[in-house]
Amino acid sequence: MASEFAGIDEKLRVFLEAQRLFFVATAPTGSGGHVNLSPKGHDTFRVIDSHTIAYLDLTGSGVETIAHIRDNGRITFMFCAFQGPPRIVRLQGRGHVVQPSQPEFAEWCDRFPEQDGVRSVIVAGLERIADSCGYGVPLFAYEGERPQMQAWLDHKGPEGVQSYQAEHNVSVDGLPGLNPLEGH
Asked: Which of 83, 90, 171, 172 is deepest in the core (most CB within 10 A)?
């Protein structure tokens, strides 16, 4: 049975921030284009208040989430309990992108452990907060974070990561990603 919440209370915050994995979904405006669904981890999620959440957007193979948010702002987060009682929580709202060149970027980053490869902070104002049973979600045991991302970042170095971000800055549907006017 699904339940809707007026906001994120302390109990729900604890559940959300305890999950090692969450998913982010976005889509471009209109009936065309590709819906994007991305897994996120590495202790990158925070509840800011009852209707605001944020996560560190780490350099990845695409820039879909940023491009879609810049296009229309729509974003959905999904958290699944892979251990303990079954539960799925969906957070739906409107997001905005905070890039390294923006004055508030450092303030947002201070909410998270220091990480390499951060290209932005995604902040979302929530319009709907709901959970459902999660009976179909299997049980999984957390073994740890994969080392490949940090090894790739170390190999590239800061300048190489910036070059990679600039080179891979358009969505699969041709939408712009990071704002080059805001740079790094």
From this structure: 171
Task: List the CATH number of the domain containing 29.
Answer: 2.30.110.10
Would the CA dihedral through 104, 107, 109, 111 be positive or negative?
Answer: negative
State the pTM of this model: 0.93
Helix, coil or strand: residue 119: strand
Distance, CA of 132 to CA of 61 (rounded, Å):
31
Q: CA distances (Å), 70 to each of 40, 42, 61, 184, in order?
A: 19, 24, 18, 17
- H runs (alpha helix) in 81-142: 105-109
Quick one: which of 25, 21, 127, 132 has its CA closest to 79?
21
- Does residue 182 sit within a domain? no
Q: Are strands 45-49 and 52-58 parallel, antiparallel or unpaired?
A: antiparallel
Mean pLDDT in residue range 136-160: 94
